Amino acid sequence: MRRDLRVCSGPARFAQRGMSLIVSLVMLIAITLIGLAAIGSSVMQEKIVGNAKDMNLALQAAEAGLRDAEADIALNLTSSSPFTSAGTAGLWTTPSTWATPSSTPLWQLVDWSGDAQTAATTRAYGQYTGAQLTGMGSTTPLYAAVPLYVVEKLSTLQPGQGDSWGQGIAPNSNQGVYYRISVYATGGRFSVYATGGRADTHVVMQSIYIKY
């Protein structure tokens, strides 16, 4: 007796076709998930690079602000300049000498927000020296704002042996005046998504300057 085996081959062929479809869908989903993970990783790396670049710009602006403040002191300020606890024109006395003394560092008490009060109690880069900050005058400036600084008049006395702000300073026979400069700088206008400035990146930098 002869048997026709072809009758059993049809259902098996259809079952194999269905399994291939399921396997293909699973592989497609896996590839899609891998692609999404790669995109997420790329976006995160761009954010890291953008933040690092913005912080570097803020540091550069702060350094430029220190140099400008030192030039301002050398050119325009003397021990008889009007340093007050009100900080008019950015010239401050030390908080510990105020009528109501404070141990809080001056840079934490100053209003850096950029409003009218800020303009009255701080000094802007180039305001008293005529210097121009590279990258601020173009239609697409590198920095979100011009660096601001204040000058704090310190003692005329030579700091004692081992004082942190007296390291490496030669004796001055009590003739020089020490000034503490505090610079507040913001980051650049670089953004990962190119949506505008990153004014939320801030750097505060200080230095001690002596003028004889």
Mean pLDDT over all positions:
76
The major β-sheet equals: 5 strands, mixed
Order of secondary-structure elements: HEHHEEEE
How does the helix and strand content classify structurally? alpha+beta
Percent of residues in β-strands = 5-15%
Shape: elongated
Q: Tell me the span between the first and last alpha carbons.
A: 123 Å
The total count of strands amounts to 5
Percentage of residues in helical conformation: 25-40%
Put simply, the count of helices is: 3
Calculate Rg over CA atoms. 32 Å
Low-confidence stretches: 188-197
TL;DR of this structure?
This protein has 212 residues and is α+β, with helices and mostly antiparallel strands. Helices cover 38% and strands 15% of the residues.
List the helices and strands and how they pair.
Blueprint: H1 6-76, E1 91-93, H2 106-109, H3 116-121, E2 123-124, E3 148-153, E4 177-186, E5 202-211
Parallel strand pairs: 1-3
Antiparallel strand pairs: 2-3, 3-4, 4-5
